[in-house]
Amino acid sequence: MKAFVFSLALLATPAAAAPRTETAVLAGGCFWGMEAVFEHVKGVTDVVSGFAGGSGKDANYDSVSSEQTGHAEAVRITYNPSQVSYPQLLQVFFAVAHDPTEVNRQGPDVGPSYRSAIFPQSPRQAQMAKTFIARLNASHVYKKPIVTKIESGGFYMAEAYHQDFARKHPNHPYILVNDRPKVASLKARYPNLFKA
């Protein structure tokens, strides 16, 4: 993959007068890895693992694992837009956190609950996501087409045992193989965005 760098005004450092916190909801495979990556982004104050795209009645791991609920494993990211912008979060999402060319899978995980999706929290986020995907496609950074969808739907927090999983279980085989390399990639590729 070619270097993933945009010199766009869209990725400029956000204005200091921005609101104190905003939220983003992103889905890109197992939420353990997504959470682990975004917890290491400067300006991110909280990351919660959960489900998005389906209804509240079946927003639990057992139901979502049936691949019949319409949910995707997702993370809700709370961030300070005076420190990190929504497009910068999208850059991390596309370049580090997952492979946006994989349909209904990421690594060893297969099914629509592992799809690549963005759940905008405002019309402005929806427009920025559309613009970002269009520019990413035009840049031909990836050999295959971007399959990330922009979707609507609420976010539902996953069970407590899923929260902070990578931090609580750093030596779990799944984390070692699939998620620790993503955090290392974030640090290597975007040192200005990385926090320990």
Instruction: Report the β-strand fraction as a percent range.
Output: 15-25%
The CATH architecture can be named as 2-Layer Sandwich
Annotation, overall tally of beta strands? 8
The CATH class turns out to be Alpha Beta
Question: Biggest sheet: strands side by side, in what order?
Answer: 7-6-1-3-2-8
* Biggest sheet layout: 6 strands, mixed
CATH topology: Peptide Methionine Sulfoxide Reductase, Chain A
Q: How many separate domains make up the residues?
A: 1
CA radius of gyration: 16 Å
Description:
- InterPro entries: Met_Sox_Rdtase_MsrA_dom, Met_Sox_Rdtase_MsrA_sf.
- The structure is a single chain.
- With 196 residues, the chain is α+β, with helices and mostly antiparallel strands.
- The protein has a single domain (17-189), classed as Peptide methionine sulphoxide reductase MsrA (Peptide Methionine Sulfoxide Reductase, Chain A), CATH 3.30.1060.
- The protein is built from six helices and eight strands, in the order βαβαβαβββαββαα.
- The chain has helices at 31-38, 61-64, 86-97, 123-139, 165-168, 173-189, and strands at residues 22-28, 44-52, 72-79, 105-106, 109-110, 116-119, 149-150, 155-157.
- The protein has a six-stranded mixed β-sheet, with helices on one face.
- Helix 1 crosses helix 3 (86-97) and helix 1 (31-38) runs parallel beside helix 6 (173-189).
- The two termini are 26 Å apart.
- 39% of the residues are buried.
Summarize the SSE layout with pairings.
Blueprint (H helix, E strand, L loop, with lengths): L21 E7 L2 H8 L5 E9 L8 H4 L7 E8 L6 H12 L7 E2 L2 E2 L5 E4 L3 H17 L9 E2 L4 E3 L7 H4 L4 H17 L7
Parallel strand pairs: 6-7
Antiparallel strand pairs: 1-3, 1-6, 2-3, 2-8, 4-5
Helix pairs in contact: 1-3, 1-6
